[in-house]
Design goal:
pyruvate-formate lyase- activating enzyme, five-stranded parallel β-sheet, 14 helices, about 35% helix
Amino acid sequence: MKYHLITLGCQMNLSDSERVSAVLEAMGYVFTENEEEAILLGILACSVRQKPIDKIYNKIAQWNRWKNSRNLITFVSGCILPDDKEKFLKTFDLIFQMSELAQLPEMIRGYGIVTPAGLKQPTPVMPKNEHITEMWNIKPKYQSTYEAFVPIQNGCDKFCTFCAVPYTRGREVSRPSSEIIDEVRHLVQQGYKSITLLGQNVNSYGLDKEGLEINFAQLLRQVGEFGKASGEEFWVYFTSPHPQDMNREVIEVIASYDCLAKQIHLPMQSGDERVLIKMNRRHSMDKYRRIVADIRELLPDATLFTDIIVGFTAEGEAEFENTVAAMNEFRFNMAYIAMYSPRPGAASYRWENEVSSDDKKDRLHRLSEVMKIHSHSYNQSLVGKTLRVLINGTDRKTGFSTGLTEGKLIVRIDKQDESLMGKIVDVRITSAADFSMSGELVQVLSNQI
């Protein structure tokens, strides 16, 4: 019995897919890259933007045509808005929330029977999360032998007006810290080198269990203490934090431990105060500026990444120029820039979209050009330096490998050796491009081979 699973969207969906795979393989299914070989076909959806949803409709139409010639079971889970769920009920055999993953074997054995949650008529009410801990208890089938994602939280309480996450994943629920530390410890003992703590708003970790659970800074400290005692070299990242909850204590903890990676992803979304208010981001530019100042002071070698939306409802040229100014001020190493896409369920969906598609594309291009300037300048400053790099792939050019620095900057290396995959090595940077660097291998630590 073979299954094929398509994962769309963020790293949280990728982490969830590893647990879905674990459940299916415990039932005796074997993964196949070729969906035409599979009898069980599934998708982890992402309703955050329209493009992934369009992909799902195209894929399920194809799969349902295949049913004319062979028996198949199809399912969908992940981040699904009520409007999308109503349509999926008519096209997929099974639809379930990730909190119901433990019941998936029963659903498959009952082929065609959707869960009670899936049968409910779509409403604006957020999904329930009380059983999410059952899903976390499922040991994932990690897709890599050196990089792993560890969920620490699910859901979001922020209600940004452009975002559908509270309506697809529900309110914030924190995973027990003991389970998180145990999973990190297991991964390090297995030789993993890159571990990312995942949540929709990681630095509000523990606030839903105040007095019963530690906070995010304390969680990072426990991870750091374990890393220090282990004597192993590995890097721990986290995504995504929210500027409202980010504080100096978190940055101080990161500065205190070698295993806590010196890379911060801090979504700004806009550099304009009025747009931030309309987005319900709950932080001012002054607050954001103070956080960046703390990062520059306490983590001088850290890279800084961000997320930005261009063309949000009523964003004019003046507001956009404030975002350009913020890009120039903070000199991000990377910015993930997206054109605003109204999503059913999010508050801004009801508002008139006053920015044209052409203006959105133009602003995305202009902001990307600014990003290139700062990224290239920083990369150029590293030429001649020797950096620790995690080898994670082979380059399209024969004889070359690719890797990531601790700051998640891309490096192209003048050596291809399968034995180096998943190892942290010394690389001397020889040249810089807009979003990457090239270098030569210096040495490999003997205890990593």
